[in-house]
Fold each of these.
Amino acid sequence: MDLGKIFSVSLIYATFRSATPIIYAALCAAITQQADILNIGTEGIMLTGAFAAVAVSYLTGSWLLGVVVAMIAGLIMAMIMAVGHIRYKAEICAIGMGINLFALAITKFLLNSALGKSGTFSEPGIIAIPRVSLPFLAKVPFLKEIFDNWCITEWFVIVLIILVWFVFYKTVWGLRLRAVGQFPMAAQTAGINVNSMKYRAIAISGLIGGLAGAHLSLGYSKMFTENMTNARGFMGVAAMYFGGAHPILTAAGCLVFGLTDSIGARLQAYGVPSQLVLLMPYVVTIATLAVSMASKMAREKKKKSALAKA
Amino acid sequence: MNVAVKSIQKILLTMLLALAIGALFILFIGENPLEAYGALLRGAFNGKLKIGTTLASFTPLLLTSCAFAVAAKAGAFNVGVEGEVFLGGITAAYIGINWTFLPAPVLMIVCFLGAMTVAALWALIPAVLKAYYRVSEVCVTILMNSVALYITSYLVSGPMSAGVANAQSLPVTVNLPQFMKPSSVNAGLFIALITVVFMIWVLNKTTFGYKVKTVGTNPSHAEYVGISPKKIFIQSMMLSGALGGMAGCIEVLGVHGYFLNNFAAGLGSNGMLASLIVKNNLIFAPFMSFFLAVLKSGAMGMQQSTGVPKSIVDTITAVFIIVATMELLFQFKDKKNKKEKSK
Amino acid sequence: MSEYVIEMKDIVKSFGNVHAVRNGQFTLKKGEIHSLIGENGAGKSTMMKLLYGMYPIDDGSIRIHGDHIPSISPKIAIEKGIGMVHQEFMLVNELTVLENIILGFEPRHGITIDFDKARKTVEQYINQYGMDIQLGKKINQISVGEAQRVEIIKTLTRGANVIILDEPTAVLTPQETKQLFVILQNLRKDGKSLVFISHKLNEVMEISDRISVMRQGNYIGSVSKEETSPAELAKMMIGREVFLNIEKTQTKPGEKVLEVKDVWVSGEKEISKIRGVSLDVRAGEIVGIAGIDGNGQSELIEAIAGLRQVEKGSVLLDGKELGGLSPKQIRKAGLSHIPEDRNTRGLNRSMSIKENLIAVQVGEAPFCKGVVRDDKETLEYAKQLSEVFDIRPRDPEISTQSLSGGNAQKVVVAREVSIGGKLLVASQPTRGVDIGAIESIRKILQEVKAKGMGVLLVSADLEEILSLSDRIVVMHEGRITGRLKAEDANEDNLGLLMMGGTASAEERGSTT
């Protein structure tokens, strides 16, 4: 086995490439988490977005329209969850799983009935999100390998991470959102409409989740398959836990999964059975989750300890 | 009004709403919903084979819905039943193929015990992570489902492969007797029914059941009165896992006769749906499982005799669960009554 | 223009089956301090929360400055100049003091927050009232007294001219209370109108201009301070004359049943960490722990009961070391425990009275046969306890969900007292229960002591500590600051010790 081939410069982009859909998903989960809502439905929102993006891109020939409709589709799914949870007091995990199953079923149904396919939809008519070639980088060998030919939504995710961070910690809205999440009564007595804040958080989460799906089907790949998110939404949720809903730490967590995924893909070339490669990101996600929670508990314990110096 | 009557009423209303929304989808693709539902019912009940098939898909759902409910009683949201079915199945297959030195009845029992043990140990992982490190069991079990699927898929396409085109294992040497042939309904149905009745008894009549309910409703109180929430949580998760493993074992020994790759897809999530819709009520869960089994087994017939794809059934069940989780839906009358009373 | 700033008429409010306010009346004049008094559960807090728009009213009308306001939200209340300092502080722990103060009314630079402007505005109010507040600290780093001042500043920066204070002194020492009263009087001088909710009659008599009394959700009457007396107020509050001071039974203390030796325990907050506490309780005596809430009492009790890990030191129950034992084993060693929070600890509200009464004996004879529970035995036992402890309603099969505070607490007391251990730990045993239940619970504690159990009593109510205890220890910031015999203790010397001793009390006194 040639380790040099596995850990080459191209691994950097490969890692980022596999991580991007998960970063979008994680940001989708982080926004609601700041309002103390666990967005288990991320997976379903994302899957719906992925389907809508491909279908619209194929039918209209416009990737941009595909992305916009995907975000609207994500918004609709998120709002079903929001109304169920806030207005009708549905337990968030239960309705989140409901949304996931609904997304799985409805995309399958529409794939069968509207597009007349089953399993996979991969037509030349699908217009993917364009990639950007930066001519000045073409001359620099090292940077070229890392930064050349990125998809627009791959550049955009970096903007989005910073944007979300800015909104959380620098704006009025972010302060209110965090107050709602940490102590809703305090927010309420400050004249903030807690439910309306939660609705807005879930709505924005839906838009980002839809975008996550659009990137997956039109940027990361150029097709739609049944259950194509394949637990990426849940990995996003796990990364969100890992980063404590802080956008930058959360994104960093996603890179770990991306790295495992790309190393695995390379190992496959050396005869490691594909199933064992495919399960690696899941195992790493669980391990990361466990370690981050355990260390968080250890920190808390230390903070509460009477023996530590104040 | 009686609480039970009220909840049955709510479930029926929810069911109607889900079917109505399903009808809208069917209309949307230009088909007649009544015809489609009629075809669905015929597909589930018309003839011995169809009834048998319905009962065969009812069997695992009985156990998986019960498995989800048992964990839920202790406050766990065990999405991992599906993975437990897979691992139970593969264990049963391994034992059933290789331990032929045991006499058949013993081998049968060992298959069940092995399947249940491995599945219970699998459930132990998320249980411990949650109890001791507060790691969300929802996240962990979902991710572990994928891991279980890949592990079993690897085993049946590699070390345990039968060497045929499909990824599947060699046939097992013991089988649960089938009846109503050529459908695949088998003695597992009775094992499942007895198990569910037993679980209802355990949760309602025994000390262990009381402890599970205490932990599930108020862990802080449980700890204070001397019931360890961690211990009980872990025990119910393992019990839940064992029930999932049993479902996997029945599928392998009773339905297929070998381990077929990805055979359990949807068994866990449909069981979870059945349980969630009835708010984890162990007595209602079997009825809901039966309803879902009817939908599932009738779907193929519907697809064949009308132009409605069978995926509409999954859509209807998903709508069903979304509507069912909304606690306050269908309570308009109550609210009105209360207001009048207070005045 | 009406003579009243606030007029609340014929207010009705219920939560589910609980009628919190049946007939609420309240008026507030400009520039007065108006006390609203009543027992726990009389509806006084609910009245003020309705005024602040926390919940909608079922019936009645509210006028602010003479205008009828059909539906109020906190936002509207704030716009109308109403501010409220809640009993439980409405402060977000993870945010800074400044962020908490401006929350909901943030000065902006476009979409971002203008912290400089915010700081200037807030500091202006801080200086005006000479308060000691550090704006940069996070809420979990400041003291209770400071948090309360933050709450007052919060209402002022939002432009409140009516300030409601919901039991503000419950978390303060007598000395801190005096400082608060100085602030309140200054606010009145500046023309603010204040509502002071309390059930402490001496404080009410000291600070108020007018006093309104509520009982069981009903408005009883209003009096001006000059025309009334504590005795009359008490009668209005309770509806009859009550003498809570029970004759203390004298018993000769026996062997040590509890020994706490140099114990260190982790705490939720810095000041509630237990740092080297030692105390003992003998059979047949009541030892009272006095202290302001949150100074480590809860942590100490949890440590004794095995619900929180002892980091250093040892606890002996009847001579047996408790270190490393589970809560169950500690109960077996002879612990009975009335916890401070009956809703999350003491009871399982989703279960019946019957099931709650045997909660600590589940799986033990005679309440089970093998692994199966014995419902008949359980019911028999529950019926018996309901009778003895006068739990109403008498039907043990009903859920504890609907029980009143007093009856719910009686279920806990009945269970813990009936198992008959060596030591009874009673934490806030009469908090939030009606006067009848207070009387009977205090009587039960006396009987338990007379039977030879040791009792460790924790209460934030000094009167309760003084009337029941044989010995008193005072806790402050996780340490014991004083040990007194009951006959040497009074509200003044306990109050000083609760603040951390005489010396520090004088220091604080000189800064104001």
Amino acid sequence: MSESSKSKSSLNLNPSPTLQCKDLHEYLKSRSAQFLETLYNYPTICLAVYRELPELARHFVIRLLFVEQPVPQAVVTSWVSQTFAKEQAKACEALSELSVWQEAPIPGGMPGWMLAQSFKKNLKVALLGGGRAWSMSSSLEPDGKARDVAFLDAYALERWECVLHYMVGSAQTEGISADAVRILLHAGLMTRDAEDGSAVITRAGFQFLLLSTAKQVWLFLQHYLHTAEKRSLSAAECLAFLYQLSFSTLGKDYSTEGMSNNMLVFLQHLREFGLVYQRKRKAGRFYPTRLALNIAQVRGVGAAPLAAPAQARGYIVVETNYRVYAYTQTNLQVALLGLFTELMYRFPNLVVGVLTRESVRQALRGGITAEQIIHYLEQHSHPQMLKSETGGIRTSSMLPPTVVDQIKLWETERNRFTYTEGVVYNQFLSQADFVVLRDYAKQQGVLTWQNERSRTMVVTRHGHDDVKKFWKRYSKSS
Amino acid sequence: MADDDAPSDSSLLVIIVDTNPNQRYITEDPKVLTNCLDAVIAFANSHLMQKARNELAVIGCHFHKSEYLYPTPGKPLDVRQIDGQYELFTLVEKTIKMRLVNLIKSQPPEEKPGESLLAGAVAMALCFIAKFRREATPGLRITARILIVTGSSDTAAQYINYMNVFFTAQKQQVLIDVCSLDKHLSLLQQGCDITGGLYLKVPSLEGLLQYLLWVFLPETSERTKLVLPGRGRVDYRAACFCHRELLTIGYVCSVCLSVFCKFSPICTTCHTVFKIGGPLPIKPKKKKMKV
């Protein structure tokens, strides 16, 4: 028989990698407990982490906030009704994962929960006051050339679009700094062209473009923080500063006084991406823009658009006959639309396309998910779409339900295969040998597939060693 | 009340604080008001802390008028960060305290404090909610609720006004929560029951903030998952329109459903004249005919 003739079938498990966008919770989860400990020294981070927690977890935190001694776990359990025990377990897990609370024994031997000291202290500071002011000191005399909100919005949008335009390589903008290019390359959103070394967009890059602006900024900053450590910037300090920005007030100026040199460098980077506005490099004051404020809201981006600046109003109308009308002039938006629609006509201010099975499948092949397409259409839908009724059908989306369903169906029809890695065993000499090995594999729970007639079986990858050993023992003894 | 199970994008909370100086706990020790107010402000800020898009309004309710304490009409105060507190929270705290001082100062000096105008304040809150909903971005899911924090005693003088605002709130899918600091309030409890809100009489004023955070902070969708104090039995007695007394049995106008404790030939609300039939005619006994 032929254990020797096993052939490895190593399939690519994930044929079209989809861009991962972690939220703050997942990002923090992936970091060490020590890193979290330093983070919780900043009231802003505590505030942001609190907002990212599941609902029930927030309830637990707020009830424990003013309790000084550990609280029995059984008591915490009794706060939630029995029918929602699963959600409660999830909430407890989230709190432990982020080390917001720790297990603490209670005199009497019962296990108890206690909020992490620094987290508790700093959340209280953020909520009720006290402690030191955040590092952006605000003792400034009024700015002679104060900027209003509309100006800041326009500025932020222009800077951010600059990055996006650079990615699609449209010629209508000036370039961006080497640092920004390095981040794009690091994130895998762009790659060096093999021939002339110029940066070109990747598939992941196109998926990035389909995200909402808030998510784009957050993803970009995540990669920035990854590379930050190499440039002797502390990620914790940067993150704390980012959240300070996100909890500042739009249209107000803040002083750069008292900021460390590293933070001033960071500020200049943020200025380049449009997260803050500064008139001059040495101006001594800066204005946070809406981009910075939205970092804290990555998670809440549902059907409803953020209070978007007037220029970024939706421009897409989708009809039940799968036609897509986009009132736009920029090449970027047309190129994005072209990813998943078949473009039909182009007018000076209007592009008409149609969603077809072929065009959507092509996008899906490129690793774009149906969810991303639907979300993009929703996010940029024309104000008129928001007003229109969906013919009495209640949906969470303002798009025609038929279109949404069909796009999802087109996606699921591609997902008829599930891939698992495994090892094939075949050419057994006797039926008995086959049956013994098959039953053993089945017992171990590592059998993926078997066929008695052709005496073939497939064992999962991690079960292979075990089965091989068993087979050696078995063939020796017999 | 709302039929959605999904948590909303934004939740609007309107807090009505009763600042009437003739509440018992204030007349006993005026300093307690400051403590209670601090608790309410901390609670208001915790509401804003829940989600970035949560909204807040605070209405002060006095015996001569009700007024918005937060947000201020017109330009907001120019508040800069002083300590580690989130700037928005500082703004809320400063605004409420400043406006409350103005409200208390504006009370007419010679008048004896009367009853708090709670029903009017609720009506103001409903107006605020309606306006907020109208101006919100389309597609945004908003839930709204009202929290009344009061130590006044129960009177039936505003019975009709109360009932009007309760049913309006029910129609607008606005929850009314009541936190009573002193006595049991049967009328407001009815309002909670009608609109699906929670009623709690705080056993001690020291732990006010904890009670507020425990019972009133969770959103509607969250409340079903938590173990919260039971609704209990609700006293549904109506007040008569003539003497404002709570009744178990009374007379009801057949046209406008006004309630009276004594019979009157003309309805004072809709001026219907009732025909009095006099005592029911007694049927003459039929004489048994002997055959």
